[in-house]
Fold Na(+)/H(+) antiporter NhaA.
Amino acid sequence: MSSSSKRNIFRSERYAALSLAGAAVLGLVLANSIAGPGLLDLFGSHLGIGALGLDLSVSHWVTDGLLVIFFFIIAVELRYELTNGELNSFQRALAPGIAAVGGVIVPALLFILIAGPSFAVGWPIPTATDIAFALGLIALVGRGLPTRVRAFLLALAVLDDLIAIAIIALFFTEGTNTAALIASVVCILAFWRLGRVKKAKTLRNIGLVLLALATWYFVLTSGVHATIAGVALGLVLRPSIARKAAHALQPFTNAIVLPLFAFSAALVVIPNVPLADLSPVFWGIAIALPLGKIIGVTIAGSAVWFFIHRHAVKQAAAAGLPKPEAGVFGWDLVTVAAVAGIGFTVSLLMNELAFTNSPHLSDEGVLGVLVGSAISIVIGGGLVVWRAKHYRNTKAAAKALGKAKGK
């Protein structure tokens, strides 16, 4: 097999999804085996760069370092959808934005309702969506789904992660390095400006890489989650350059970054807690994560779709234009909502921050995240398979009808 063929395999979303799922299962199994303590020590060991004041564990080098590349690629794709793709109008882009907000508010309220005021500090835990696993599930079993469904989930998950980062910054960050934050903004602006230079491409590209590294460093040291650097750089870089960079980075991301991330994130020891002794924290997360996302995303997304689409239909009729496309609604929206309940990594991070002084509650929170995410995978995966089959059958029927008419 040629090197170009191998790179094409690594660019496949299905390959990425399989490697992600396989690495996650392997990590979870090994973490709860005899090899678990050694692996946890390895990924917990620190690798620092003293001259830069960096002292990160191996796990954090993956989640705060390598994963930034994945978020850069996601941001490039999101920008394309917002400018030329399925979300290229204000009305289309607003729907996943409002749905994301609904998918944060309802799980938080549901958690407080179930867990009670005594454990209210854990409200952010069920609000997160793990973008890598959510998109991976769609890629794995969603062959035939319309691109608008994936684009909707993409936008919702990115916005959900940005909200999660804001929650961490507002509620779980003890202090923010303002100087580093300002420096990161300056680097992003310089990155944007340099990306518009069309001459001296080699020097320009070297400069872009250096500015990207500087942006990552300053965002990390500012106290803001480092993945925001990847999102910002992907959104501001000139589209023609950004697409080439994303295309070049995709094999590395799919073959190395995502499997490492999934393996590291899944290195979780399942707590041995008797069912009768489980606290409201477990039940709050395990229920609010799948159910809260389904209710919140579906209601918010349906409301904005109803008002926006209704208005768009009236405008088109008044102008004598064709009826606009319906967008993502109904069972497609419920499917996206169910998949969005896969909190996993970000929810585990929220859990660690919320119950950092309560190891017992933290253990139950881990179990709640795993159970809630597993429920979302089962429900969301089943809905994705059903909707994908529906669209494949619809397409096949339309094709057969077209052939019959041609005869």
Remarks:
- The CA atoms of residues 174 and 223 lie 9 Å apart.
